[in-house]
Amino acid sequence: MELLYKSTRSNSEPVTASKAILKGLAEDGGLFVPMSLPKLDVSMEELSKMDYKQTAYEVMKLFFTDFTEEELKDCINKAYDAKFDTTEIAPLVQAEDAYYLELFHGATIAFKDMALSILPHLMTTAAKKNGVKNEIVILTATSGDTGKAALAGFADVKGTRIIVFYPKNGVSAVQEKQMVTQKGDNTFVVGIQGNFDDAQSGVKSIFGDKELASVMEQSGFQFSSANSINIGRLVPQVVYYVYAYAKMVAKGVISNGEEINVVVPTGNFGNILAAFYAKNMGVPIGKLICASNDNKVLYDFFQTGCYDKNRDFILTSSPSMDILISSNLERLIYRIAGNDDKKNAEFMASLASEGKYEVSEEMKVQLADFYGNYATEQETADVIKEVYEAAEYVLDTHTAVAAKVYKKYKAETGDTKKTVIASTASPYKFARSVMSAIDAKYQEMEDFDLIDELTKLSKVPEPNAIKEIRSAEVVHDTVCEVDKMKDVVKKFLGI
Ligand SMILES: *Cc1c(COP(=O)(O)O)cnc(C)c1O
Fold first, then answer.
1. Is residue 73 annotated as a catalytic residue, yes or no?
2. CATH of the domain at 404
3. Does 106 sit in the ligand 1 pocket, CB within 6 Å?
4. What gap in Å lies between CA 334 and CA 330, rounded to an integer?
């Protein structure tokens, strides 16, 4: 049965999966959502015997119904290969009483690789299927990790170019170095004088610029998005929740059917929404625990039903979660509004004009699957030290936010269900914050000396992604003001 996608903001004609992937964002500014959420059609028993790629096929075939089996398997094989440093792709590691789902074994050592190693293949396949002749220009705003993962995915992919905007002073040293050293003639990296929300709003406005779109068309270009608003990012993320559950059954950690909880360090709400989709597909998940850092707009939303971004933007040690507009929440709002695009469009208009909206009591009741909490900077640092000392396991700062929130959840509820914590980055990516949390003596050290110390401490070998940047040459040095993003894009494309 064909699954179509519609916009969250209007009643425009539904489109196929491949068209939704190509477009990224709907023309009315809404996000594409599947008309219904499919149910898994293989048993957990069968899934528990499958490897990552097989699981990926079983999930993606239900969402990307206009791709042939051959096309989909080809995309999956190209994505989940030796770029990952383990054939398990997403290993599950127990530390203390939690199961860390390590999503950072790909090329750029953050969980964005899970989806961005397949998106370029889905996109070029979708272009072929739809007879697209234009060159596809991927426009991406990044809080640090998406940028590099997208660059790595799209570099030298024929028929595509990629432009990444990042907040010049809002990413870690390793994150920046990874991006500005990116090779590939089709890549372009720009630092902006603003924060992530500025970058994301700038990109959205370029997407919505009709005049620019027509100039692009004349010059043989069209935009698409690699941000987590693209359904081609979201669906591959559903896979690892299915996989994690099946692995826990296979290892005898849980019995088939037993509920687990899932904790997700959250920024743009993509990863946790994928877990919610997995739950709706039939994976026995109890609570979806949404962990925020000091930018706790989501925690406040789950508490009060009011989403309010009118507050200071705080730079934290978990920069990939420094976000006040969680774009993917719109997909959940649309759903709890009873799949009502008009109602959702009103909320989003209010968010754009007033910076806030408040959902009704009936809508709030439907958020019962979720639990929100947050960790302060101090709590995040403390939990890194605590888990290291108790279990010799080194958490990155984002995963630490989740670990702390899980501890708060347990203390508050007494819920002892087996729990999976999405581990979204390697500690190597945030070595300075991680090492300083473990011992203040590391504060004085140079970046790469810290990395050497982390290797000794964690007993985890230095990942290739770090080795690569030790000597890599900086090839991107463009910096621009927020209101010049469009000019920069035109210049890069020569239009
Ligand atoms: C992007 C990112 C997050 C937040 O994920 P969302 O899907 O945006 O909620 C958390 N941790 C790390 C390391 C990330 O890169």
1. no
2. 3.40.50.1100
3. no
4. 6
